[in-house]
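Structure representation.

___
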Amino acid sequence: MMNPDVVEKLWDVIVIGTGIGGGTIARCLAEKGLSVLMVEKGPFGPRAEQQSLRSDVDDEHARHVRGYWPKPLHAVIDGRASLFYGPLGAGVGGSSAFYAATLERPERHDIDHVEGRSHPSGGWPESYDAFLPYFERTERMYQVCGSGDPLSGEPGSSLLPAPALPHADSAMRDTFEKIGLHPYHIHLGVRFLPGCTMCFGYKCPRSCKMDGRSAGVEPALRRANAALLDDCEIKVIHGEKDSVSHLVAQRGGEVLTLRARRYVLAAGALGSPRLLLASKSEAWPQGCANSSGLVGRNLMFHLSEMVAIWPKRDALSEGPTRSIAMRDFYYAGNHRFGSFQAMGVDASYGEITHYLKNIFDRSALRRLKAIRPFLRIPAFLAARFFGRAKVFVGIIEDFPYEHNRVMLDAEDPGRLHFEYRISSELTERRRAYRKMVKRKLRGQRSMFLSFQPELNFAHCCGTLRFGNDPRTSVLDRDCRAHDVRNLYVVDASFMPTSMGINPSLTIAANALRVGDKLAAELADEKLSSDPSMECPMLLSNSNAGASGDVAVVTGAGAGLGQALAVELTRRGVRVVGFARRKAGLDDTAGRAAEGLFVPRLVDVGDGAAVQRAFTDIQRTIGNVTILVNNAAVYPHRDFMEETAESFMETVAVNLGGVVACTRAALATMTRSGAGRIVNVGSFADLAPQPASSAYSVSKGAARILTKALVADFSDRFPDIVITTWMPGIMATDMGRPDGLDPGVAARWGAELALWRDRSLNGAIFERDREILEPHSLKRRVRDRLLLRPRAVPRQLVPAG
């Protein structure tokens, strides 16, 4: 439940958005002692999440819980309208939670007018030298590592040493140096902790990658004067002509009013102008801070030019190239271009398929959905052609034009909507860039992969540009709105030009710069008192068994459940057994390894009782790391003998028990990012026996639930492994006298519960062997063409 003080309080600063700009300024202000409320449209999300930013997830709620921007973008590009999912985040950390952590300084001529390299806008209102100390502070805050650019004439960056280049990168560096280019280790905001998986393009589960969350929001929240409202959308800004009075927000079904002395907008270069345009009132007839009519205009992206480069045949080049950048193509022939760097992917079948589908979804052919699956054919042919090629991307700077703009969507005002025309001069610069790259890579086998101009929708900027003249800019040099004295902006929309580099470092540096200005402005005002924020509970498994695991086994008072509980204790696992009869639990305790079995009288059909039990386990023993959903009832009633009540009583145990126990276990597993769930299943739904209607329906539904859980969690928490196990008919009260000895089956079940391989997610085992789901003819043909090895069922071989 939300602390009412958060809503009732007058904050020093409210920050709207927690991406790289919002997260950075929130930390800066909190560390200066100001009371700061961060408001984020998306969820906080467990730290352990690991999903990538996927465009194939199209359910709005599924996108929301994963931290993706929930709705498709409505784009009109060169007069052609389309709806597609852009590479935008909507959770704590914003899009930076998924970024590749590239944090590089711009060139001096990106910001200043430099003799011989004229600036598109004549230069920013603040100079490169004014930004310089903030570049250095950002590099320290984000723990940026890398090596110096050999072509740079600027003082050395505040970089940490970079790890040694992997073989693939070292081979490409040597290749580039031999043809006269100047590669260097790209500048990355990554701590490279032991076991770092370099989750570029993914959420980082360990705060190894430094982003708006790990470097901004989380450090801010460690202070008592900062708070966060997640899952909270600002609907409109209210105020007088020259100041904001309050924000109207919605969180769940509740409408909130939020107030502060200063407001900082950091909702992204598409989201921030949309909110200002939506905040029309008598005081602001064109929208908040829009007397110039420029809110949303001057939208810029970068053009991306992807190039496949083949390493020399004798080079050690296994694996994708990740760490190389160079600026040999940054500026040439009076043309402004940009950096050139490795993408961190090979030209593989999967990557090419993903790329082609993204292009298709934005093309005029997107309505011909039957064509989409056939994109695999050119992807397959391309993958065979490219082989060992490494993929690099070149950036081409975009220039500001007022006709390129963010607008309110008339059909859906909450949707992000923009119009953009690719200018003739950008097309000409692209042509010149491709010629230059081809010339400088002469002698090196390479191929352009972009056949048409490709806009980088992750690099949108410029829609609330800062400047000295209120007639030609929305913000002043301190990024305060010209029209509204207590409103600031710190996302990429402040940028008057797009530069030739990833904008992340510049956005964060500007946020620190504005944070200093804002804090100085508030320094003489009385700071409000702040409620202390509750720290997250630290959980430990000090009472776990020798294996370090705590398992819950349901139905542990008899039969297979009892045998599983006993077998797991013999393997050093602390087991909490749920059952409805004390005598059965006492019997299990007498068979289990001494001191490792904890009996709990719990009816799994009672969701409240299950929740109380898990809460007590967490308090007294520790985190549940293994859950075996075994409990079931089999009433052996003909359907006409069932009543609605008796039918649902069976469903409450066989399905409801799985739901209740799984939800309770996942509450802690998602915090740690790891866990093991084994759902004991049955083929009863596929081949129902007479007098088994309630049992067959409930067990079949539980098996489908397992698949649904895998769909919900496997991309975000790959180390929470969920598996179905079908042990067959047992020689138990529910089975037959000639069935399998539950003690034998329990050895397989325990082995499966302790097996934590990610590839087991969604697997189905019957007794001791994996069941492989049959593939379609199309899938079998594709696997054969791609020379994929034929899958072999895995087998459970109990230890000892």
About this structure: The two ends are 50 Å apart (CA to CA).
